[in-house]
Amino acid sequence: MRAVSDDAPLLHDLMPWSVRPMRIGRSWPMAPDPSSLRARWVLFTSAADESARAALLHPTRARTLHTPVAQLPGHRTPTTALAAESGRCPAPVRIQHGPFDQQWLIPDHRLIDVARPELWRVADDRQIFVIEQAYLPDAHEAAAPEAAVAFSALLPDGRSPAGKPGLIRPLFRRPGGVEPNLAPGLTDRLSAQVSAEVTAADTVAWIAAVARPGPRGCAVPLPRDPGVWHDGVALGRRVLWLYTHGSRFADPATGQDTTGLRLPGGSRPYVRSPLPVTPRAGELTYDPEERALRIGDGQISPVSPAAWDFTASGVRVLEAWYERRTAVGAPGTLDALRPAGWTRSTTSELLELVSVLTLLADLRTERADLARQLARPGVTVGAAELRAAGILPVPAARRRPASVLAHQEEGPDGQFALL
Q1: 377-388: per-residue pLDDT in tens?
Q2: Tell me, what's the pLDDT at 4?
Q3: Which residues pair with 114 in a beta bridge?
């Protein structure tokens, strides 16, 4: 891979508003399934006394049994002190944990140290979250370099399998797909360059296709050639469709269906031998000769080597996914309440993840070809040109969240919060 010495603009400037990752502060409010969370809540609220409840909570500086906090935007949960809580568990919600894992979370602000309410306010069925990945200096030497950014339709926590957080950049600054989080004037400039109307969706698709890591931050080269632009946007739409598990950029005409991510018949993974009812940590292995994923005596195949070797922050994605579903919590803690067993839903999630990783790995050649085209002299627009056009630097206000007044949010003890 060549050394990057050009003037490609940074994602930091093209999508100026960013939010740091969530920090839950305790592991038990998140789990692979909602039933475990409800069981943990019942145990927590039925503790014999306040000291027992505190031991289950795992208090921090930010959250104790008496910390006053407002509701999370969009969730009508109680705001009274946890010490007196006796109600039902708030309905768990699906979130994106790291780049590829989908977990469940109790959406109760009293349990989350740093929830980033500004993200919850803009999370809806139009939103796409762009999650910048940690820069790994030696990544260019890897046989399969990791992507500079990940994407999610679900609210992301911004974590990674290696524990390295990344900044989260929503595509839209307000709910309903309103006010793109893009440098003012950027889409107009791109439209003039490629002789076609460029939307916020096109722009994030281009970012998905070409973003590359670097010591200065994630760089996004912008093309002059309309053909290169259209090819890149089409590629990026497929990348986004895969990262969001088909919930964004579905297009049956291009094989990007809304009914599920499926590999072609000959490479589609199936359960060949029944999986254990209660798999244990360390039982996941891979047989490259048979292209088989094994869990105890169970087997899933075919699974491509590229899917097995797919990493995020240097950690193999499938291994990390499995470990989070088989880890055993310490006795006496709420984490010890785990799913009763491996379910059909868990198997479906695993098969879909294998498909996502396989299809993303298949796109690496196209992404590398596009990168080589953009590496030629004179084919891209640099940050200097954007500065000359008045697009950069962006106004300071664009790096701050927009005011969102769509609904009232209850503050501590039933008081309404001012936004």
Answers
A1: 999 999 999 999
A2: 43
A3: 23
Q: Which residues pair with 398 in a beta bridge?
A: none
Q: What angle do CA 200, 204, 208 make, to 5 degrees?
A: 165
Gap between the Cα atoms of 279 and 291, Å rounded? 20
What 8-state DSSP symbol labels residue 86?
-
End-to-end alpha carbon distance in the chain: 47
Length of the chain measured in residues: 419
Q: In 3-state terms, what secondary structure has residue 22?
A: coil
Nearest of 96, 85, 79 to residue 244 by alpha carbon? 96
pTM of model > 0.70: yes
CB atoms within 10 A of CB 75: 16
Amino acid symbol at 352: E
Task: Write down the residue that tokens 């627009």 correspond to.
Answer: 381
In Å, how far from its chain's centre is CA 152?
4
pLDDT digits (tens, 9 = 90+) for 234-269: 999 999 999 999 999 998 888 888 777 888 888 999
Distance (Å, whole) CA 206 – CA 228: 10
Q: Domains of the chain: which residue ranges? A: 11-261+366-417, 265-361
101-105 vs 93-97, strand pairing mode: antiparallel
Look up residue 134 and give its amino acid.
A
Q: When comparing pLDDT for 39 and 410, which is higher?
A: 39
